[in-house]
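Consider the tokenized backbone below.
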């Protein structure tokens, strides 16, 4: 029994470690108790996070290099673009400036995916429960050199948030084209994955 105890502890340690390394949005979190403005926007971000999680799960080098036309972005370039917008989604509630231009080409696929999902999770948690008056202080700020321009959060909804959903759909389509469709057990309506 004494010899088996270290093995049991080792298995338990690895189980806990693996669980803690799971990326956000494998499933959509439980829905909130009310339809406050913050909860609605938070849920939109959760929906994006869930779609992004599964659209980007298990991408191959062939998927990442795919582009429909010479003028199009590759899947990897699309991931870089979405990551940049996830930073903006996270920065808006604190009116943190988004310094441009920024180059995300140095990040590998796995890191881009992880950072994007973590940004979306943090943004969702920050916005959850906020009331309409809180959104008056949420500002999208762009900075190029010494120049700054600011926009209300409305521009985030029809801009970056909608654009990320749009591009996530493109990734889903492009990976299907390369012969690597998303997991068919994913239900975007329920926000779950059948086992």
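A designed sequence for it:
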């Amino acid at each position: 029994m004494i010899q088996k105890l270290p093995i049991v502890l080792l298995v338990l340690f690895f189980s806990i470690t693996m669980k803690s390394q799971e990326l956000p949005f494998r499933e959509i979190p439980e829905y909130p108790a009310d339809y406050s403005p913050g909860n609605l926007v938070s849920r939109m971000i959760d929906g994006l996070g869930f779609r992004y999680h599964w659209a980007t799960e298990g991408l191959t080098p062939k998927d990442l290099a795919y582009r429909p036309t010479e003028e199009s972005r590759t899947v990897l370039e699309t991931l870089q673009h979405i990551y940049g917008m996830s930073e903006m989604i996270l920065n808006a509630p604190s009116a943190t400036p988004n310094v441009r231009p920024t180059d995300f080409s140095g990040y590998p696929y796995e890191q881009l995916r992880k950072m994007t999902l973590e940004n979306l999770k943090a943004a969702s948690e920050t916005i959850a429960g906020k009331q309409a008056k809180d959104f008056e202080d949420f500002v999208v700020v762009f900075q190029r050199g010494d120049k700054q321009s600011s926009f209300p959060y409305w521009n985030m909804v029809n801009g970056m948030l909608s654009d990320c959903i749009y591009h996530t759909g493109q990734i889903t389509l492009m990976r299907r084209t390369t012969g690597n469709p998303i997991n068919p057990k994913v239900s975007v309506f329920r926000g779950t994955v059948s086992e």
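The longest helix spans residues 153-177.
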